[in-house]
Amino acid sequence: MTVAADQPLLAVENLCVGFATDDGLVSAVDGVSFSVAEGRTLGLVGESGSGKSVTSLTTMGLLRSARARVSGSVRFAGRELLALDERERRTLRGSEMAMIFQDPLSALHPFYRVGWQIVEAMRAHREISSSAARAHAIELLGLVGIPDPGRRIDAYPHELSGGQRQRAMIAMALVNEPRLLIADEPTTALDVTVQAQILELLRRLQRELGMAMLFITHDLDVVAEMAHDVAVMYAGRIVEQAPTDVLFADPQHPYTGGLLSSIPRLDTPRGDALAPIAGRAPNLASPPGGCRFHPRCPHAQPEHALVEPVLEPLSDEPRHRVACLLAPDVRRRIAAQAHPRALAAPRQARDAEPALLEVRDLVKEYPGRGGLLRRRAPHRAVDGVSFTVARGETLGLVGETGCGKTTVARMIAGLLAPTSGEVRFEGVDVAACRGRRLKALRRELQVVFQDPQGSLNDRKTVGAIVAEPFVIHGLLPERRARRRRVAELIEHVGLDPSLLGRRPADLSGGQRQRVGIARALALEPKLIIADEPVSALDVSVQAQILNLLRDLQRDLGLTLVFISHDLAVVRHMSDRVVVMQAGKAVEIADADELYANPAHAYTRSLLASVPGAPRHAGTEVTDAVDR
Amino acid sequence: MTRYILRRLLWAVVLLVLVSALTFVVFDVMPAADPAVLRAGRNATPETIAAIRHDLGLDQPITVQFWQYLKGVFLHFDFGYSYTSNTSVREQILSHLPATLSLTAGAACVWLLFGLPIGIVSALRPGSLRDRVLMGGALVLMSAPPYFLALAALYLVSDDLGKVPLLPGADSYTGLTASPGQWFASLVLPWLVLGAGFVAIYARLLRGSLRETMATDYVRTARAKGLSERRVLVRHGLRSAITPLVTMLGLDIGVLLGGAVLVERVFDIPGIGRLGYEAITHGDYPTIQGTVLFAAMFVIVANAIVDIAYALLDPRVVYE
C-alpha cells in the first residue's frame, strides 16, 4: 500500500465480522486489513458476497445487526472507531466520513424533497439558519452538475433522472466536507454515459476537496479508472492488493486473473470464448479449509485445502501483496498463458439464405396520459426501427435505459402489438398471428429474461418449469420420455440433473438463468431473444452464461437476438449490432466495424463512456446535463 | 391535484348512484313481500291496499319509481317512512347518528393511542420477549369476537351486574349535550371493547410496515447522515410506515359509522347499528334501506377521503 509517510486517514487492521445464524457463524469478513490516505482512492473489488459491503458498512458504523460480531481495529484519523459509543460515532457519520450508495432511487427518501434531505444532513452537524442551509444546498447541487439547481432543489427524488439522483446523493454526502467518502457501487445502477459523468465528477470533487475515498465495486474497469490502489476480496478475505497499475499489469492471484479474463472487453478479439471461473463462491457458514479459492482454482494442489495462505508482499515489488499458495514463478507462468481460448467452430455462412426475422418500420406508441379535457401527445417508445436477422446470426441490440430495446424485443416475441410496422418471422407477420398460429409461432421463438428470479415460478420445481413448455404445447405426453428430455436439457445447460427436484429459490443466480435458458430451449426454437440475460449476474457467472449461449448457438444453429446495455458484452456476442437511442436505431453495422469505426455520434459517446475504453478521436466524455 | 380531487369526488357520486340503484333493486323491485300489504296491516281491504300502493307510487312504472326514489335520496335525503313507527327514516337516522359518531370517534382514539405505540415498540426489537408478549396479546384480542369481549366487560366491571362495579354498563348512554360527564362514562366500556380488536390489528400492521421501512436503503442513508436514532425513526421510518395505516383507518371508520351493530346491541347504544338491527327484526324495509344506503355512503366517502389523503401523503402518487 502506498500511503504518505505520516498516518493514513483510515487504517483497518485484521477486521473480522461474523453473523450468528441458524447455520452457525457466517464470517462475512475475515481478517481484512487496508488503509487509505487523504487524497487517495482505494478500490475494493469483489463479487457479491465477498464481504466488501460489510467492510464498508462496518467502517461507517452502519452495521446494525444484533447478530453481528465485530473484532479487529478500524482507526480513523487516529481514533479507534470500534471503541466509540453510538453517540460518538454519529457525530463522525455524515460529517467526517460520508457514504454514497448503489441505487440512488432507493437511497433517497421518496417522500421528501431533495433539498430538504440535503439541508437535514447539514443541520445534523452544525448550527445554520434554514435560509443559509438552503442557499448552500443550491450551491452544492450546482457544483455536482444539476442544471437549474434553484428549481430542482424542490424536486422529489422520483422527479429526477438516475444520474441526477446520484448527483444529489453525492451533494448530500459532501455537504459537510467529509475527509473520507465511501462509495458503494455508486454507478452500478446507472447507464454507461451517466456512469462516466459520475466517475468524472467524483474524481474532480476528490481533487478539489482532497478527501480520501474507499471505492467499492465489482467492476474491474471502473476500479482501474478510479483507484490509486486496489484490494481484491474473495469470500471475506483480501486475496491481492497492489497499486492499480501494478495489479492490472501483473495480476498474481488466480482469482484476479480469472476475474480479468471473465470480462468481455472492447479491445480483445471478438469470437473468443471467455474464460470464466468455474464453480461459485463458497457458503461462508462453512467456508472451504485452507485457501478459500482452492475449490475453484484450476491450479490447486491437494495441500491447498489444508494450509491457509497469508497476504505477503512480492519480493521484487513490496507494494504488491498476494495471498496465494502457488509459487511465484508458477503464478507468472499461469498469467502468461491466460489467453482466452479460441472458439473452435467457425460461424455459419449466412449471406445466401433469406432472413429469419425481418423488422420493418416498427413503431410503438403509448397514449399520453390524459386529463379531463386534453390528452397529452402520445409517447413513442419505438420510432421506426428496421433490421433483419439472418439464420444462425446473433444480432446485438444495445442502448441505454429507456431507449426502447426491450419494447422491440417484446414486439418481436409477439408479447406486445406494434402501433405500426411489422415483424416477419420466416415471412409470417407476427402481429397478425392469433390462436393456433400464434401458439405455433411461440414454439419457434423463445425469450430468456433478465431477472431469472422473477421470471421463474417459485412454487414449481426446476423439473416442472423446464417441462412446462411440453405440457403447454401438448408434446411428449408420455411421462417417462418427457422426464428424460428434461434431464437432457438440464445437462445441456450445464446443470446437474439432481437439481430437478429443487425450487428456484434454492438456486444461485447463474443456475436460475441456466434453468431459464433450458426452458427456452425445450421446444427447439429457431430464434431466441435474450433480454439482458446476464445483467443481474456476477462477472464470473456472467462469463459462464455467455459462453453457454454461444456454445448452444453453435451446436444447435440458433439465431439469437441479444439485448444488453453493456457494449462489451454485446460486442462479444454479436455478429451485427443495432445501436438504439430514444426509440430509434441510430446505427446498424457489423460488430467489428461498429466498434472500430463508429459512425454515429451517439455510438461514439457510448463507446467513449465505457471505463477503460480507447477514446476515439474527437470524442469527449460529456459532463453534460443528463435529463 | 385539484383535478385529481374533483375526479375522485365525481367517482364517489357515480358510485353512490350505483349503490342506490342496487338497494332499489333489492328492496323495491324484488321485495320479499308486497310493501303495500305490509303497510296496510291485518284485515286490509283490497281498496286500502290499492290506495296505499298509489300513495307510495308503486303503481307507476319502475323507471319513474327509480327516478322519484333517486330524487328523494339525493335532493331531500328522503328515504321514505318507517313501516313500524311511521316517522321519516331520515329523522330516525339523524337521531341515531350522534351515538354512532361518539362510539366510533372514541374507539378510533383508543385503538390509535394503544395500537401505534405497541406497534413501534414491537418493531424496534423484533423477536424480543417484549415483542412476543405484545404480539401474542394482540393475537388474542384479534381472535376474540367483540360481543364476547363486550359481555365479559359487562360481567366484570359494569356497575349494575359486574363483579367489580366500576363503569356504567348497558343502556346507560346519555347524549353529549345532555351531560358530558355521563356521556363519557357511559362510553368508556364500549370504546375499549370496540377498540380492542382494532388495537391488535393496527399494532401488527404498523409493526410489519415499520420493520420494512426501517430496513430500507433510505433509512440507512438517514443513519449515514449522522441523524439521531429518534429522528431516523420518526421522520424517516414512521413517515413512510404510517401511510398504509391511513388507508386502513379511513376505511375502518367509514365502516363503523355505518353502525357497529354488535357493540351497539350489547351495550344498548341507540346508534345506527341498533336502528338497522331493529329494522331487520321488524321487517321495516324503508329503514333497512335507509341504513344500508347510509352505511354505503360512509364507506364511499371514506374511500374518497383515503385516496385523496394518500395522494397528499405520498408525492409519488400521480394525480391523474
List the topology elements.
The complex is a heterodimer of chains A (627) and B (320).
Chain A: E1 10-21, E2 24-36, E3 41-45, H1 52-60, E4 68-76, E5 79-80, H2 86-92, E6 97-100, H3 104-107, H4 114-123, H5 130-143, H6 149-152, H7 162-173, E7 180-184, H8 192-209, E8 212-217, H9 220-226, E9 229-234, E10 237-243, H10 244-249, H11 254-262, E11 312-313, E12 321-322, H12 328-337, E13 355-366, E14 379-390, E15 394-398, H13 405-412, E16 420-425, E17 428-429, H14 435-444, E18 445-448, H15 462-472, H16 479-492, H17 509-521, E19 527-531, H18 539-556, E20 559-564, H19 567-573, E21 576-581, E22 584-590, H20 591-596, H21 601-609
Parallel strand pairs in A: 3-8, 3-9, 6-7, 7-8, 15-20, 15-21, 18-19, 19-20
Antiparallel strand pairs in A: 1-2, 1-4, 4-5, 9-10, 10-12, 11-12, 13-14, 13-16, 16-17, 21-22
Helix pairs in contact in A: 4-5, 4-7, 5-7, 7-8, 8-21, 15-16, 15-17, 16-17, 17-18
Chain B: H1 2-29, H2 35-40, H3 46-56, H4 62-76, H5 89-124, H6 129-143, H7 146-157, H8 180-214, H9 217-224, H10 229-241, H11 243-257, H12 261-266, H13 272-282, H14 285-313
